[in-house]
Amino acid sequence: MVEKTTAEYFFELSEVRTSFGEKEILRGVNLRIPTGKTTVILGGSGAGKSVLLKHLNGLIRPGSGKIFAAGEEIQSMPEPALLGVRKRIGILFQDGALFDSLTVGENVAFPLLEQGWKDRSEIDAAVATALEKVGLPGEERKMPSKLSGGMRKRASLARAMIFHPECLLCDEPTAGLDPILSETISHLIRSLVTERKATAVVVTHDLGAMKIMADHVIFLRDGKVRFSGDLEALAAAKDDGIQKFLNATGGRG
Ligand SMILES: Nc1ncnc2c1ncn2[C@@H]1O[C@H](COP(=O)(O)OP(=O)(O)OP(=O)(O)O)[C@@H](O)[C@H]1O
Ligand SMILES: [Mg+2]
């Protein structure tokens, strides 16, 4: 059982169980996410990867079990206190989740406003820098509906990173992108994360992206962690389901 989180691990989950109605999605998840490294979460569609990711910043609460995030026990932390934890964690949602009625600049500025930033020129400067970093310089005034899929991912990434979080959660950052853009985004996340020695958790199906980003890999199946280790150990894993997964998508890796 996890008693407390150490600086060595940014997240620690112990016996986490979560159901929606009758359906148990997480069935006793135990895992540790190392601080300052990038952990990739793999698993088939519907395995519960997005659900798991949302437990890490308290957007979904477990039915039972313990979750430590950034040194705090969060599974039953009241919402106002959780906001303090969320200030340390940026998130890129699977669908990008840009607000369609706001401009790109307003979307990217959103976390800063949530965190109480008031000075317009400071906000504008931070937005301009964030957009530049993701290769979208000067796109503040565009509406999200005018962006391509790749541009939406980049804008979402700028929004997730704008406050320089200690930790970045990314759900399928390369899904739906062509192979070249997928590689570009993977390198971008890798460099943004390593530059700041941040912790990252990336959910992906994309084995090429995994190879670029992962220091550590977790494989989820049937609501449990079936593997946790580095890329070398993953390649040598004896689990049939894991090897099937790696070989089925290996052509793209
Ligand atoms: N808010 C919710 N209410 C009810 N069921 C949900 C909810 N969110 C997820 N689920 C269910 O939980 C299961 C796991 O969903 P999840 O989105 O985590 O899968 P995933 O591993 O991310 O899949 P994909 O690779 O397709 O994104 C699915 O059966 C889904 O229908
Ligand atoms: Mg998902």
Describe the structure in your own words.
Mean pLDDT is 90; it is low at 1-5. With 253 residues, the protein is an alpha/beta fold. The chain has a domain at 101-164. The protein is built from nine helices and ten strands. 36% of the residues lie in helices and 25% in strands. Magnesium ion (MG) binds next to helix 1.
Q: How are strands sequenced across the largest beta sheet?
A: 6-7-8-3-9-10
How many distinct helices?
9
Count of strand segments: 10
Low-confidence runs of at least 5 consecutive residues: 1-5
Gyration radius, in Å: 18 Å
Topology of helices and strands:
Layout: E1 9-20, E2 23-34, E3 38-42, H1 49-55, E4 64-69, E5 72-73, H2 79-86, E6 89-92, H3 104-114, H4 120-133, H5 149-161, E7 167-171, H6 179-195, E8 199-203, H7 207-213, E9 216-221, E10 224-229, H8 231-235, H9 240-248
Parallel strand pairs: 3-8, 3-9, 6-7, 7-8
Antiparallel strand pairs: 1-2, 1-4, 4-5, 9-10
Helix pairs in contact: 3-4, 3-5, 4-5, 5-6, 6-7
This protein binds adenosine-5'-triphosphate (ATP) and magnesium ion.
Residues 49-50, 94, 171 line the site of magnesium ion.
